[in-house]
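Customer escalation, tier 2.

The customer says the design service returned an amino acid string that "doesn't look like it belongs to this structure." They asked us to rerun it and document both sides in this ticket. The original structure tokens are below, unchanged.
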């Protein structure tokens, strides 16, 4: 073979190797682009989930505040109700004692309706 034919053969081998390298490169590039799209989709999904979790966290905080306020209101209501019950119990006891103390008593056939009533005037003869 002549020098020109050898150079031509070498150039052809070089072109063939370059072509094979380009084909491998395009395959790798395609795989990387596909992986990149998959990772972008995954990142987008993660961001959406993060946003949703943030929203739920804020909602949870709002619920916690609402529940705390309702708990405080309920405790306050219970305290107020207990105070009212104590007052009512005291009033009932007072009323009961008054009823017992102010019950009519019989005095010589006549009922006295209250202790405040003056007994009949009795003239003492001298």
């Amino acid at each position: 073979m002549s020098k020109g034919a050898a150079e031509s053969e070498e150039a052809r081998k070089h072109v063939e190797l370059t072509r094979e390298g380009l084909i491998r490169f395009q395959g790798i590039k395609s795989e990387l682009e596909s992986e990149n799209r998959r990772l972008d989709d995954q990142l987008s999904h993660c961001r959406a989930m993060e946003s949703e979790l943030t929203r739920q966290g804020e909602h949870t905080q709002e619920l916690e505040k609402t529940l705390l306020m309702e708990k405080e209101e309920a405790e306050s209501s219970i305290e107020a109700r207990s105070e009212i019950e104590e007052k009512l119990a005291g009033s009932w006891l007072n009323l009961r004692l008054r009823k017992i103390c102010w019950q009519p008593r019989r005095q010589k056939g006549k009922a006295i309706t209250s202790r405040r009533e003056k007994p009949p005037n009795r003239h003492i003869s001298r």
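Tier 2 assessment: The sequence is consistent with the input. The chain has a mean pLDDT of 84. The first helix runs from residue 3 to 101. Sent an explanation to the customer and offered a walkthrough call.
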